[in-house]
Amino acid sequence: MSKMLCQDVYQFGQKLIRRRPLEPREESESRMACCLNTLDLVALGVGSTLGAGVYILAGEVAKDKAGPAIVICFLVAALSSVLSGLCYAEFGARVPCSGSAYLYSYVTVGQLCAFITGWNLILSYVIGTASVARAWSSAFDSLIGNYISQVLRGTFSLHVPYFLAKYPDFFALGLVLLLTGVLVLGARESALVNKVFTGLNLLVLSFMIISGFVKGDLHNWQLTEQDYKLVTSGSNDTSRLGPLGSGGFVPFGFNGIFQGAATCFYAFVGFDVIATTGEEARNPQRSIPLSIVISLCICFLAYSGVSAALTLMVPYYQIHPDSPLPHAFLHVGWAPARYVVAVGTLCALTSSLLGAMFPMPRVIYSMADDRLLFRGLARIHARTRTPIMATLASGTLAGVMALLFELSDLVDLMSIGTLLAYSLVSFSVLVLRYQPDQNLSKIEKTEKGTEMKPVVEESPLEPVPEAGTSKILKSLCDPINTIPTRKSGQIIYGCASLLVLLLTVLSLILAQWPSRVFSGDPVYTTAAVLLLLFVTGVTVIIWRQPQSPTPLHFKVPALPVLPLMSIFVNVYLMMQMTSGTWAQFGVWMVIGFVIYFGYGIRHSLEENNRQPPASNSQTFDKNIPGAESS
């Protein structure tokens, strides 16, 4: 009886770690249209990332956290985002399929982790879409004298729990449904609309940057306490201007720079929309990596340029936190320019909204195509070649949330899903680079379609291990083989998983008790140092293992350091979330597990279409430890 129970538990565990092969499935629905070029992908990435935050965030961070050094904050945040962006870029070159982080996790880590990733991506995109729609409605309403909100509040005032809005925002609902219709028309049409609004946004930002350098005063980067006293002379209340810091270019010191960089990091969230276009890009192996890097560079230049212009036009302690740019132009005597800012804000919100809505149905479609979500959501429209049911379902859900919910309390919940996806993609890159290439099928996608090109490479024979602890350590730090073997692949899986655990504990300590760690508290400081030493040791073991020589259009440099730094940054930011946010995350996961264990695990294609042992035409995932159960 106990033996049968153990066998059942083992088989159930094997189901949870089943990995998806990469070859296109013959039973899949007709594929989506390959119509997006590199410019389309860059516009999607920039439009999704460069939202209304560029008009607001710079003022908030400069006033209270960094001062003129906000330019450095955006540089640090951009470099941190590039860590994840490079990992996405390698997977975009490796996997020319739709699904983004969900698919990458399915190929590498297994089905359960893939479902968790996809389910949380859906949450992030839904909350992002609904919140941007309400922000668009609010911005437009303020331009016309708050007429819409007054009418709706007087007619449909809601006296309901705190998480619901004070009144239903029918304008936001209509906006979401309108853009859902645009998405249904086709990827090419959606990309065209996005390029128009993204281009207008960049023109407005360019105008503001040039204006700021023309009307700015370099003295605002060299302010002293005397300047602060001149501004507040004649008033006993100086607190209304906020803290001064120590003046100069870095008034709040390095601590202010790092605090500001942590806030600015979220300004670069959104580039992952590019990774969901694998089936619709004409040349994904080349255009996806290139587009991710270019879009992040453009966003950094825009954020840093606007921040520099703003702090040159206005002393940082006089910046208006809610509408910094209109007040800055008013400060320098260019009051009419505030209308240009208003146009740019609406264009940025429109492209950001479309950028949040575009990937959502692609992730749902990919999960439904694997039968982890309901099969009907994988339907492709015969004429437009878009995932029509997934688009309609996601647009309706986001529209209802924009109509009824107060979303300001859910923004952190959206961040958890995004950071979790970033971390899993970095982990997947770290693992796959060290796996053997025996029986590897190279998937190439051209404008004519997807082609399977088997490449058979013999994996070297593994030497018989010598006995003794010293011999084991020697084999870990000085392996004989120069090409990955099955054993070295298993070592990487174990070491990478251990590193994620160690980095999580280290991030928790640094996020929750930073003062105790850096003040020399014997317990916390010792624990942090020991964790850092363990992380360094395990990293060295991974570094010494042989990497796959398989050529790709793009590879993350400096493995294993860059993916591990990306994981650390993402996990550190996740550890700073409040307990209430984690409780909301738990509720969402319970709903997801009900769907997965009630439907997905039984209807998965990996469950119903078990394949025979790997042949020369099957993919590398058969060589990943534990993948045989697929």
TrEMBL record:
Please tell me whether the keyword Membrane is annotated for this protein: yes
Q: Where in the cell is it found?
A: Cell membrane
Q: Which UniProt keywords apply?
A: Amino-acid transport, Cell membrane, Glycoprotein, Membrane, Transmembrane, Transmembrane helix, Transport
Can you name one GO molecular function term for this protein? L-arginine transmembrane transporter activity
Which Gene3D superfamilies does the UniProt entry name for this protein?
Answer: Amino acid/polyamine transporter I
Disordered as annotated region, ranges: 608-630
Residue ranges annotated as coiled coil are none
Q: Which residues cross the membrane?
A: 34-57, 69-89, 101-127, 170-187, 196-214, 249-269, 290-319, 339-365, 386-407, 413-432, 491-511, 523-544, 556-575, 581-601
Q: Which GO terms describe its cellular component?
A: plasma membrane
Q: How does it sit in the membrane?
A: Multi-pass membrane protein
| Comp. bias intervals (Polar residues) | 610-621
Q: Where is the Cationic amino acid transporter C-terminal domain?
A: 554-604
Per its UniProt record, what InterPro entries does this chain match?
Answer: AA/rel_permease1, Cat_AA_permease, CAT_C
Q: What protein is this chain from?
A: Cationic amino acid transporter C-terminal domain-containing protein
Q: What is the lineage of its organism?
A: Eukaryota, Metazoa, Chordata, Craniata, Vertebrata
